[in-house]
Description:
Elements: H1 2-33, H2 55-65, H3 69-73, H4 80-114, H5 122-144, H6 156-181, H7 191-217, H8 242-248, H9 250-275, H10 282-308, H11 319-345
Amino acid sequence: MQQQRSTRIVANWIFVGVAMLIIQVLLGGITRLTGSGLSITEWKPMMGAMPPMSETEWQQAFDKYQQIAQYKYLNTHFTLSNFKFIFFWEWFHRLWARLIGLAFLIPFIYFIVKKYFKSWMLVPLIILFLLGGLQGAIGWIMVQSGLNDNDLYVSHIRLAVHFMAAMILISYALIFGLKLSIEPSQRIAETRLLNGAIIITALVFIQLIFGAFMAGLKAANSAPTWPDINGMIVPEGIFSGFFHNIVYNKIGVHFIHRTLAYLIALFILIWWFTARSISYSKAFNYAKNSALFLVIAQIALGVFTVLSSPKIIAGKFGLFEWLAELHQLTGMLLLLTMVAVVYISGRKVTTA
């Protein structure tokens, strides 16, 4: 009984971590949407937890920001007050990362002392810790790519790497939490459904990469129409230099992002109809129905986000920004739901 209680406590701790990581990614989205990502030009893992504490320190931080291209070519109108606004979001994004580290480390030590961990849990926990550290390093490498005299923003490719590394971390944590909380009897061991779920999960993963490309390239308002793309179903010249177009061209990225959304929705609908006869697993039923709801919500929010993109006002967090954040959230939840489906659809095993 005590062993079951300790396992449940560890599982809840992991799920709290998953929730904190999701919030961290959303804070990253706000940082990007407010143009705040390059406001802090130094990486100080320890001392950087505190913001500037005096007007002199604020001015020194602002002076450093004024040395990069984003200020010189985009934000020359900024006052110290404007700078403090964008500084806050990047600082809070980094502060939340530090809080996640503490929320992992302190209970980790406590649980070791209390002997809550089983031997098989230690390797996954170490991997989680390493993935978290790697994510922080990737984030700084991404920011550093924009701290120069040429680039107004960070590379959209590095943004995608940062985002997807976060999703891998969250997915791994979720699977670990599910291992601790879902009874073997709730796993359905259906190979056909498992294979379909793996394909859909892979497509959603790729889709999120293109979502990050969309965000990094600020491609939403390059085609603020639906269901057509600026009057076309297939953008003209998309297949000429196809790879370059779907990685660097705003319209090309836009086209792939939309096309994948329709394909994923179709696959989930077919998969859901196939899976609807499975009713004995509450966990599977919840996950499969959530996937259907989320993909519908994801497409609807994507459409409304694109249509609202002409209303973007620099320096203001308006309708487009709220829709973009919700669109990102549902995309993340869809991936995590499919990861859960893959786990629940797998073979029934027990952990000693």
